[in-house]
Write a structure and sequence with these properties.
- By secondary structure, this protein is α+β, with helices and mostly antiparallel strands.
- 37% of the residues lie in helices and 21% in strands.
- It is built from 13 helices and 18 strands.
- The chain has a six-stranded mixed sheet with strand order 1-2-6-3-7-16, with helices on both faces. Strands 9, 10, 11, 12 and 13 form a five-stranded antiparallel sheet that branches. It has a four-stranded antiparallel sheet with strand order 4-5-18-17.
- Helix 1 crosses helix 5 (130-149), helix 2 runs antiparallel to helix 5 and helix 10 (338-351) packs across helix 12 (396-416).
- The longest helix has 21 residues, at 396-416.
Amino acid sequence: MLSESERRVINVCDELFEETLLLTESLVRAYSTLGNEREALEIMEAWYRQEGLEVNRVPMRQSILDEMTGNTASIEARYNVMGTLNAASTGAHLVFNGHLDVVPAEPASLWTRAPWEPWRDADWLYGRGAGDMKSGIAAMAMAVKAVRQAGIAIEHPLTLQTVIEEECSGHGALACVKAGHAGDFVLIPEPFGATLVSGQVGVLWFRIGLDGVPAHVLDTSAGSNAIEAIASLFGALKSLETEINAMPRHALYQGMEKPFNLNVGRIEGGDWASSVPAHASLEGRLGFPPDMAVEDVMERVRRCVDEATADLGGGISNLKVDFHGFRSEGVVVDMRHPAIHLLGECHHDLTGEAVTSRALTCTTDLRAFHVHGGVTGTCYGPVAENIHGIGERVNLESVRHVLKAYALFLCRWGRETPRDDTLAQGR
């Protein structure tokens, strides 16, 4: 049941809904692909200052990148931005975390409008990042404004984190965690709908390169075709995917046909159409169970490639496997955690229905908090379609719902959430 003060907060959420969409649209216009996140960061920093939050920039430190041995864009002057309230309070520390970076919208010619120019049509807001996850960031920010504007004081520690590099490494959220900003519970507005995320797979990015022997096309047999050789590895990699999916699984993934997916997302090779290509490379992504170690998966990829070497043909040399970007462990969320229960109650009181949960076949920044910070959290966000695809869009009413759910969660966090020691036991 909603109290009178909570109903007042919900009414303010309705009043702020258009402002929430306008903030989303301004973030979509800031087309924040890898290395180009500055404008989006500045929009959120300005919003934090406008609302009286303490602003902190958390730099992307080389030491963290070296530790994770992942690839990243140049870290020169790159950072994440946070808005905080009551940092000195001894209450349970709630963290909202959202990523500002987006994947490229190419080919832009397939969009009906420029993907970095947001537009609304009926019940949807379109544009790259509208769903993944700029509308969720706008909702988490406006939820704070709604609670305060309704006259309810937020007295517990609260941090709003807007981070970069979620789409390629997770180093932005990791930098915040390593800098001591993990909090006691994290809520991430990924666009999977008003459902609780109960777990996620591990993810490994890999790169395979090799050399062939160049030759003139007047006699292609005089050379060794590197592109054909690299393409011949697809079968071996698909067999590895099948092998991993056939292994015993955590209960979260028992009902899924193929939760651990391989994707070969990039291939390059050759120099000239009339020359046998002398070099080629591919980059891929492989999902794996949450109870499997990253090192185990890396070894399986290496072994898979080694065993396929004999079928590459003569003249192929310098075969190399390396790992870049994601090297992310899986996550199993403790669904008995008191904050999970509290969020479920908020969902029920807004919808009249019990909240559902789902395990993801992808990864999110939950991994940084769970694995490296020892902090429980979940995702609960708007409904989006075509994320990473053409015509990405977010459902407007789902944004309104998430705004209200976050605001109600904020209201109840301070008075119903146990202190730090109890939260730690819930981890």
